[in-house]
Amino acid sequence: MPFLEVLGPGIRGRRIPLVREALVLGNAPTCDVCLEDPDLSPQHAAVRRVGETVLVEDLGSRLGTFLDGVAVTAPSELHAGDVVTLGDVRLRYGQAPAEPATAGPADPLAVLDSAETVTTMEPEVYAELVVHHREQLLGRAAVWLGRARRLFWVGAAVVALGGAAFAVGMLAFLGWPPALLDVVPRPPDMFGWALAGRVLSGHVAWAVGLAGLLTVLLALLVHVLARSRARRITRTIPPPPTSWHLTPHPDGP
């Protein structure tokens, strides 16, 4: 994940992960990254992500924005190690290495039991360490929600099939409408025609409908469990911060 590391003054070492497509930097409280430097403009500069490319752009600031000592007059691409200067604040651009894939626990939600203090982390540390894991868990819940929806419609179709088969046999037994008897013979029993082993077609239709109903109930259960997991993830691991308010420390470097 790309990030900006604050080099100073007073707030050295803070990392700002570029988790959004655009971040506005300045000293206005409404900025995505609010830097308490009176020399900065309210909206001083912007950092934008365009695909895999990260650009820095000056927003008409009073003192200007500099990239490795050169004034930024148009959107300029950032590379690892580049230093962006806004007034007295210097920001170094970097790329955090991708974490190797590791096998997760049997129950991916087990990690949430030890994540009660996650909201006390520094915002940039939280975003880097947690946001990908949170999205992975929510993605798994979404997969199960999709499976539940498909299972529901399969069950509903099976219920409809069984109901239609039973209805045809019942209507044929009642002889209504008369034109139906021109298509199928009249069954000797209200539960339809006798099949192999003297099993009535109506009983088979009921069994098919019951299987479909059980499938629908299973789909609803899976849906409830997946939705409950998604709510638990959202409640236990809240979304990452989208703005940072950086205040220099009086005794900072």
From TrEMBL:
Domain spans labelled FHA: 23-72
Q: Quick check: keyword Cell cycle in the entry?
A: no
> SUPFAM superfamilies, alphabetically?
SMAD/FHA domain
| Key word Nucleus present | no
Q: Give the CDD domains listed for this entry.
A: FHA
Q: Give the matching InterPro entries.
A: Cell_Proc_Reg/RNA_Proc, FHA_dom, SMAD_FHA_dom_sf
Pfam families for the chain: FHA
Q: What is this protein called?
A: FHA domain-containing protein
Q: Which organism is it from?
A: Georgenia ruanii
